[in-house]
Amino acid sequence: MFKLMIVDDEMLMRIGIRSIIDWEEHGFRVVSEAANGKEALELALDLKPDVIMTDIKMPVMDGLQLIREASRALPACEFIVLSNFDEFRYAKEACQLGAADYLIKTEVTPPVLGELLAGIRQRLQREHTRSGLAALPPDFTQSLTHLKESLFKDLISGLLDEKEAIAKAQQLQSGVRSEELAIVKMRIDRFGEVRKKYVEKDEKLLRFSIVNILGEIIPARWSKEIVIESSADYLLIVNTSEGTMAAVRKDIQQLCGDIQLTIKEVMNLSLSIGISAVVPGFRWLKTAYEQADQALRRKFLEGVGRTLFYEDGASADDVRTAADPASESAELALISVLESHNEAKLEAFFAEYRRALAAKTRNEREVREAYIRLTELIGARGSYAKRPHSPAAEPSPYEEVLSAETREELHDIVLRYARQTMIPDTPSSEQRNYADMAARLIQRFYAEDLSLRRLDSYDRLHNKGSMQSLGPVSAARVRASYVSFADVPVKVCV
């Protein structure tokens, strides 16, 4: 795999270039980034990249000077110039200095960049063959990033002992040492909504973008490794700085604040973060992971976009109560409020319910179960005509309750559902469900044997197609519910 460096004084441009493709699929690994030519030259002399992709106009040392200096020290290095339309004359000069090609920034696309890299890769491979350079050992032709991820996932799972882990970390040139370290677990808030914007291929791009931004904004003084746990969850494993626990905490909090701010500014995403206690080495990474995960679960009670330290409090799962949060008296009060059709009373009931529930329990499971019972009660008391019916693609109230990420979000979902059941009847809401229609027809023809198929026929003739008015998806669901019983006689007993 060939080494590549990106040089541009604009951070967003560096992030964009780094995130636009999967470099390793094209045979390259981004080994470093720099914000000016002087910084890039110092890094290049140390890292010896095969390709440098550089902007032209930069402070301290521009791209043209970088090409002159670096090409003398690294004659085999290839250069790609990034330019704007008004910098074309500089791009021509760069090509005269030996740059392989140039790209107009506004026209950089994955296909264009992929085609350019394919040509450069072929030239580099031919040069390696001519120079008699040995191929990389098979173990290292795999992605170094993936090998490191596998190492730390094994450590978190408790599958490696410390001695073996230290040996592998050294072999893979890991940035993290088996010394004082912590795990920072980051989660994209409301990921279900974020995911709707991405197809599977773009979801992969989302992961690359997050990792690239993290790599860009975390200062070099932090010894770190980044692990993708899922498209929503990312782990940052860092060796902590020396000093008091208060100083270490302040340092980590500042780092997490910078990460949250940049992700918001660049990608318009909110991150919630859970942070473990400091542990003494690789052997305790599993414990650190469990602590970070436990801290992150407090997001349910404290809200999204927070930085949560394990030491600040036990997880909601650890705070239990024998009290029943949704008492019978509260349920009776809700029934009374629903029947009153008074929205002010409904608001007051839910405000008091939230206060009483918070006083009784901080356990996520108990809070969620309490609101599930309210949802069931609302669904049972509201007439079918008044109950909100979501389109097939929309989640049901129960699905929303189960997927709510915070207590406040959960409260708002159930309150909204209760409000919807109190909307006065309208002509469009007069339609009843198939069971209601069947009950009316059974009462009408109580002396006869009726089948569900016959009920459907009567419905079409006498009610202008109640089933059809439900829409094709809803009607299909209703019929599917009864398909096994379509010809079973329904004997009415009175």
From TrEMBL:
Determine if DNA-binding is one of this entry's keywords: yes
The GO molecular function terms of this record are: DNA binding
Q: Where is the Response regulatory domain?
A: 3-120
Keywords, sorted A to Z: DNA-binding, Phosphoprotein, Transcription, Transcription regulation
In this chain the GGDEF domain maps to 179-312
- What PROSITE patterns does this protein's entry cite? GGDEF, RESPONSE_REGULATORY
Q: Which residues form the signal peptide?
A: none
Carries keyword Transcription? yes
Q: What is this protein called?
A: Response regulator
Organism of origin is Cohnella fermenti
